[in-house]
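[Discussion] Sanity-checking designs against the backbone

I'm trying to build intuition for which residues belong where. Below is a structure token string of 723 positions. I'd appreciate it if someone posts a full sequence so I can compare it with mine line by line.
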């Protein structure tokens, strides 16, 4: 017998409506973290409340798995964008970071980073559309590298913005703005400043090295750039492999808690370098087990582990009472905040970057930008009048040397690949024109110092371009620069012996003009080259348009305007031991002997004259700005950029810098025109660390402002007193 359940129509309607309301409410509750009308914090708390403990732990690792029940896809946090989207296929390859620093142009750095973030977003969109949630296709980048290039032996110094904390802070801040955009609640790409904090070699020892540094050098040299980027909203900080004064950087109470957290108020994501947590118990041996390391890292504020250690050991650490679920919540919360700011839980139509696609990658605008960046970065070190070359006088040209057609001297490390890579020989062929007979010869290998090609043929040409120097296989990261005998580092400043021997052989064979183009990511022994060359250009690792940029400079279409972001020393013996992190007699700020080329050096095809339009005040009080105005005049025949550099000399006290860069400005001037540049220096920026009281102090006394061509060539000098 069937029993029929009779429900009045009104009750049926109410029942169905109730089910629908309940269903809608449940859906709204589930989707709350996807609701863009809510605050970032409210959305983050909602998602956090929905995750199980196991899921939370899994999302602290860089290779974060999917949470299928919440429709959260897998995500890989390991993505690179040092000077272009890296390791992800087609991308515009911009000049290496050290070359970008050589522009002394934060606006250029921001434009380059903006282009990189556009390409990164586009590649991410295309990958997601194909269901590919893979490494190097993400929208957070572990860049920029803002370590101080304190010693030219360091192989990874090429990834930095040079030896000066002020320049590094300015260039790094601009790069972060280009990556992240201007909306602090909606990142274009989330940037990460690395490696916090005292990290610049030796590469071979980085997993076990203890950098010993006193608080004065720590505060005045190794930390300022990080502080600048934190103040300007960088999304993440990456802690380094090494120890600092006995404390592993990735669990350091001093660096992470006292300075980064309490003192600076950093509330972004804190990530480890890859494998750094394993180093703590395996190599530093400061903590006995991986479980204890996992607990220490979580307690120290680590949010993202570039390894599997926390994913593997955090649950056991909880079971042992070393940490709690609340500690895990605090850790994962910042990862969720970053994802929300990146729009990872928004609908596609809610993202301003959703339309970026294949036409956003390596397009003509980005190629042109790479060309302009390369042109601005190359440094003219010597010119006896041979440059610029006059096309009408160059009927034939020899281009030779192992690096003239070498992809790696354009690409550097952490690079993408591009169909627009223009080597130096290709650039010179492009720009010389069909009526110029351009010849090419490999010339020599890195190993052979006896057999050379092209010397006879070069004697019949109007000029020879020799492209010599280093490649990223000789200097770079431990494991990548496999031709380095020192784990990626250099032993000294020398260029390859075969290259120097080849130059000498070329010079001995004929007296025609020889222009040497040096490729490098660091200071090298240019003085060994100079006697045999009529002109010397430092091209760095110049990106995909390096060949065209060099040709434009050689033929005078563009005047060289790069400036050295490093001191070029006469010999490595002038420096302290590599492992010594004391800043005494290092960099232009503390080096007191003669140098080959000073920080900020770079020649032009024209001349510039500086005059005071408005001098600074002669007496200044603490808290006041020091303002002044300088007129820059291009007195020559070529249009050119100039970089006006302002240095400050401090009162004569123990451990004061010799001088410090405190302002700079790149300006473009047509021939026989002038421009007025206004500068302002905050007296707070002149404070130095008082070791006795462990705090910043503005010292009273006599100071100098020096408006200069470079660190060793002041043009305008003004004395003032801080009272």
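Best answer:
Here's mine. Compare freely.
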């Amino acid at each position: 017998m069937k029993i029929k359940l009779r429900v009045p129509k009104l009750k049926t309607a109410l029942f169905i409506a109730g089910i629908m309301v309940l269903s809608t409410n449940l859906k709204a509750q589930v989707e709350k973290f996807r609701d863009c009308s809510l605050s970032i914090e409210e959305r983050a708390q909602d998602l956090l409340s929905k995750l199980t403990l196991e899921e939370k732990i899994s999302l602290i690792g860089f290779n974060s798995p999917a949470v299928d029940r919440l429709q959260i896809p897998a995500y890989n946090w390991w993505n690179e964008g040092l000077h272009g989207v890296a390791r992800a296929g087609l991308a515009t390859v911009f000049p290496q970071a050290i070359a970008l620093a050589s522009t002394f142009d934060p606006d250029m750095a921001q434009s380059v980073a903006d282009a990189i973030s556009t390409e990164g977003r586009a590649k991410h969109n295309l990958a997601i559309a194909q269901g590919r949630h893979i490494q190097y296709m993400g929208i957070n980048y572990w860049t920029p590298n803002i370590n101080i290039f304190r010693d030219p032996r360091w192989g990874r110094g090429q990834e930095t913005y040079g030896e000066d904390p002020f320049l590094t802070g300015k260039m790094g801040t601009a790069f972060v703005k280009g990556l992240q955009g201007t909306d602090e609640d909606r990142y274009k790409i989330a940037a990460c400043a690395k490696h916090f904090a005292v990290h610049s070699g030796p590469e071979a020892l980085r997993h076990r090295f203890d950098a010993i540094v006193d608080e004065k050098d720590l505060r005045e040299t190794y930390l300022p750039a990080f502080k600048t980027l934190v103040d300007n909203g960088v999304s993440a900080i990456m802690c380094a492999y090494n120890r600092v004064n006995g404390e592993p950087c990735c669990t350091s109470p001093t660096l992470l808690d006292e300075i980064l957290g309490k003192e600076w108020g950093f509330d972004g994501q804190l990530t480890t370098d890859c494998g750094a947590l394993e180093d703590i118990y395996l190599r530093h041996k400061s903590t006995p087990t991986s479980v204890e390391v996992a607990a220490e890292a979580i307690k120290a504020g680590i949010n993202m582990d570039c390894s599997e250690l926390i994913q593997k050991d955090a649950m056991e650490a909880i079971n042992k009472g070393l940490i709690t679920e609340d500690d895990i919540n605090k850790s994962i919360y910042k990862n969720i905040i970053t994802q929300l700011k990146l729009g990872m839980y928004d609908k596609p139509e809610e993202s301003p970057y959703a339309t970026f696609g294949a036409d956003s990658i390596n397009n003509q605008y980005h190629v042109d930008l790479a060309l302009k960046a390369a042109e601005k970065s190359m440094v003219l070190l010597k010119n006896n009048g041979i440059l610029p070359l006059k096309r009408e006088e160059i009927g034939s040209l020899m281009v030779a040397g192992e690096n003239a057609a070498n992809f790696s001297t354009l690409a550097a490390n952490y690079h993408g690949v591009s169909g627009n890579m223009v080597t130096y020989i290709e650039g010179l062929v492009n720009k010389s024109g069909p009526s110029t007979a351009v010849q090419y010869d490999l010339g020599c290998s890195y190993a052979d110092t006896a057999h050379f090609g092209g010397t006879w043929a070069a004697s019949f040409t109007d000029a020879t371009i020799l492209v010599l120097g280093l490649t990223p296989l000789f200097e770079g990261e431990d494991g990548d620069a496999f031709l380095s005998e020192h784990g990626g580092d250099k032993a000294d400043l020398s260029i390859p012996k075969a290259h120097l021997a080849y130059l000498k052989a070329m010079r001995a064979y004929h007296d025609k003009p020889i222009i040497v183009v040096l490729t490098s990511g660091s200071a090298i022994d240019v003085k060994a080259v100079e006697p045999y060359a009529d002109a010397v250009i430092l091209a760095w690792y110049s990106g995909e348009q390096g060949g065209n940029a060099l040709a434009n400079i050689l033929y005078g279409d563009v005047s060289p305007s790069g400036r050295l972001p490093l001191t070029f020393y006469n010999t490595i013996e002038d420096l302290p031991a590599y492992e010594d992190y004391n800043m005494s007699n290092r960099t232009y700020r503390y080096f007191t002997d003669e140098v080959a080329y000073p920080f900020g050096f770079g020649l032009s095809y024209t001349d510039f004259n500086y005059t005071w339009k408005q001098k600074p005040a002669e007496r200044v009080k603490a808290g006041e700005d020091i303002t002044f105005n300088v007129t820059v005049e291009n007195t020559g025949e070529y249009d050119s950029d100039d970089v006006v550099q302002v240095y400050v000399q401090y009162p004569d006290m123990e451990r004061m810098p010799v001088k410090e860069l405190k302002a700079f400005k790149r300006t473009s001037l047509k021939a026989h025109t002038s421009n007025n540049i206004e500068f302002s220096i905050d007296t707070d920026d002149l404070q130095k660390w008082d070791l006795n009281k462990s705090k910043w102090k503005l010292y009273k006394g006599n100071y100098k402002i020096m408006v200069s061509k470079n660190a060793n060539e002041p043009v305008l000098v003004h004395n003032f007193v801080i009272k």
